[in-house]
Here is the input.
Amino acid sequence: MAKIALMLADGFEEIEGLTVVDICRRCGIDTVMVSIMKDKQVVSARNIPVIADVLFEDVDFSEVDMIVLPGGLKGTQNLEACEPLMAKIDEFYKTDKYVAAICAAPSILGHRGILNGRIACSYPSFEGHLVGAVVTHEPVAKSDNVITGRGMGVSIEFALKLAEQFVDKSVVDDVADGIIYTKLM
Here is the structure.
C-alpha cells in the first residue's frame, strides 16, 4: 500500500493540509500527518491546533512514497528552515519518489532546483520563486514525480491528483462523486 507523508509546521494553511489527508484517506491511501515541530501539536495559520500522527524523527521514510508540503506563508518558512526535511525532499526527488507542494510551498522546490525545466504552479505572488520552471496558471501541475498546486481554492483538485498516483482512477472518481466535487480542469 502506498504511503503519503504530509509535513506540518506551525503556520500551515489548514485547508491545504487537511484536505490532502481527508481525500487520500478516503481513497484508501495510508496518509500520515508529520510534525516537524518539537511536539505533535502544530498550530495552523488561523491558530487552529492540529495533532499530527507522528514526529518527523519517528518516520521511516523508506516506507513513504510521497512527501507533501502544504502552504501558508509562516508554515512554508518553517518547512524550508527544517534541514532534515530539506534533505529528505532532495533524496525523494533524486530517487524519483514523489514530492508535492501547494500555494507558497512550491517555492521551496524552486529554491532547491527541483523545478528546473518542469511545469509548475504556485500562489501568484510566489511564482517568482519557481526557479527554472515553466509556470502555468492551471490549478494543479504534474511534471514527472513533482506535483504542484496554486492555492487553497484548488485543494480538492490537488488532493485528487495526488491520490491518482497510487490508486485506480475509478477510486478517485468515486471519492470525487461521493463528496459532490465538480472538477476544475
Remarks:
- The two ends are 28 Å apart (CA to CA).
- The longest helix spans residues 14-26.
- The chain has one domain: 3-176.
- Helices lie at 14-26, 73-80, 83-94, 106-111, 155-164, 169-178.
